[in-house]
Amino acid sequence: MKEFTFQSSSGPKVYTTRINDDGLLSCDCQGWTMKRLNRARGCKHTKQVSAGLNVVERAGQMYVVGGGSPPPVAATPAKPTTKADFINPMLASAIPAGQTVDGYSQGFTMEEKFDGIRLVIRTGNGSVQAWSRLGKVRAVSADIHDELARLPEGVYDGELILTTSLRSSGTESLVLFDCLEIQGHSLLRQPLASRRRFLEMAVSALNGSTAVRVATMRITSTPARASRQTWRIR
Ligand SMILES: [Zn+2]
Predict the structure, then answer these.
(1) pLDDT of 42-59, one tens digit each?
(2) What is the C-alpha to C-alpha distance for residues 26 and 16, in angstroms, rounded to an integer?
(3) CB under 8 Å, gap of 24 or more: what pairs does 132-139 form?
(4) Which of 97, 134, 185, 199 is the most buried (most CB within 10 A)?
(5) How far is the CA of 219 from the centre of ligand 1 (A)?
(6) CA-angle at 132, arms to 127 and 137, nearest 5°
């Protein structure tokens, strides 16, 4: 058996990738252990270990076939943040023709909606890159930048809003409502509930920041019930 360890780029966590004697490939990170239906198992660590090796999938497991060259062992290199790192945010779509809201039996997710500037943000290794909804590079205020730099490596979707009051001309803050990628793992095919868990976990690292927060969300049984509920805006 061969073992390779990878330091998480955003915390003290260490992931272990193994090639067993029978060639079975495995990793203990979430990207590997959370296998998605009808998709090949994979994570960036096994990808790195298996680079240059012949890997096949059998019965949902990945195997290294034959000898191959020794896999590279290296800490995950810092990724340059370029425009190519932009990910299209998810947009609302209409209910399918013939369907009504009463046809959804699983309940509804209700979320605060702000009218500001949509921002897609990539963080990692202390760097922050922000884009508009269409991928135009955007700047954020120093306060927001410093908070975002503390988030785990990932791609986040949110709305930049300006709060004005009698006393101040305006304070910029960022409300996040989606997480599209975390530590190199794409969440684009994950359901909202799962992406939301990653988002809340990530933002909890900020310890109640006022510049960056997560949009308030409720899950309710019916839309009528949702419309009766009141909101507490922080
Ligand atoms: Zn992994």
Answers:
(1) 888 888 887 767 777 776
(2) 8
(3) 133/89, 135/83, 135/86, 135/88, 137/83
(4) 199
(5) 32
(6) 50
